[in-house]
Design goal:
The protein has twelve helices and ten strands. By secondary structure, the chain is α/β, with parallel strands linked by helices. The chain folds into two domains: 196 residues, 2-enoyl-CoA Hydratase, Chain A, domain 1, CATH 3.90.226; 48 residues. A six-stranded mixed beta sheet has the order 1-2-3-5-7-10, with helices on both faces. The chain has a four-stranded mixed beta sheet with strand order 4-6-8-9. α1 packs parallel to α3. It is globular and about 60 Å long.
Length: 263
């Protein structure tokens, strides 16, 4: 059970693991302790077979406004501190992108810089229509992280990614959905319920094929047709030997919902 002062709150709702960024007084600006705890909780969710989907959201009126510029203003971090911060941030985004469980970001409010990078790392982003989104890094003399140079381009194309990263202009949640940055835009008070509904649907799917789909779809644009076919065949061969494959076939013939166990 997470303490209310923890930078990341943890809650289970059946097969769904809900992780809430919890620095509402700082609009959930990221800090090293937040990144470290989020990395650990994502690892826990990946290793727990009873977790079928992970939802990320923010406490209060923002999802996450990125780096805590107030603390940065107190002086530049040392080389070791800087390296630890950057590498931990990258590890968080890598866990979201490459972990075996689908991740849904419920962007309930503003998502800026590192916060938007976390949301982009998720498989699906459901965003508040009026949320303000932005990549301000280059305007601030720094640089994007979290794999944004590919997570954004794979959603909106290279030219639009250049515009959003180079210029750093604000855009709204509804615009994010229109351009393909987000999966869906909804009123702010519906962002988390909509994300949880989607997560519950995902949690009903067969977890082994879902993990394979997540593993293969992301890099698909950079692999040859031959490699894609070879990896799909490998996935199929392994899935055919699972208990869940047999359950899916039996459920189909018996006209009932399947009960997948991840085995």
């Amino acid at each position: 059970m997470a303490d209310s002062a923890d930078p990341v709150l943890v809650r289970r709702e059946g097969p769904v693991l809900l992780l809430t960024l919890n620095r509402p007084d700082r609009l959930n600006a990221v800090s090293l302790p937040m990144y470290e705890m989020l990395s650990a909780r994502l690892a826990d969710g990946a290793d727990d077979p009873s977790v079928r989907c992970i939802v990320l959201t923010g406490a209060g009126r923002a999802f996450c406004v990125g780096a805590d510029l107030k603390s940065h203003g107190e002086g530049p971090p040392s080389g070791d501190e800087r390296r630890r911060y950057v590498r931990t941030a990258q590890r968080v985004n890598y866990r979201i992108q490459s972990g075996p469980k689908p991740v849904v970001a419920a962007v309930n409010g503003h998502a800026i810089g590192g916060g938007l990078e976390i949301a982009l790392s998720s498989d699906f982003m459901i965003v508040a229509e009026d949320a303000k989104l932005r990549f301000p890094e280059i305007s601030l003399g720094t640089f994007v992280g979290g794999g944004t140079v590919y997570t954004l381009a794979e959603r909106v194309g290279t030219l639009k990614a250049r515009e959003l990263i180079y210029l750093g202009d604000f855009f709204l949640g509804r615009e994010a959905a229109d351009m393909g940055v987000a999966y869906r835009a909804v009123p702010a008070d519906e962002a988390l319920p909509a994300a949880m509904d989607l997560a519950r649907r995902l949690a009903e799917k067969a977890p082994i094929p879902l993990a394979w789909a997540k593993r293969l779809i992301g890099p698909a644009g950079s692999m040859t047709r031959q490699k894609a076919l070879r990896l799909e065949a490998r996935a199929l061969e392994r899935i055919f030997g699972t208990r869940d494959w047999q359950e899916g076939v039996e459920a189909y013939h018996e006209k009932r919902p399947p009960r997948y166990r991840g085995e």
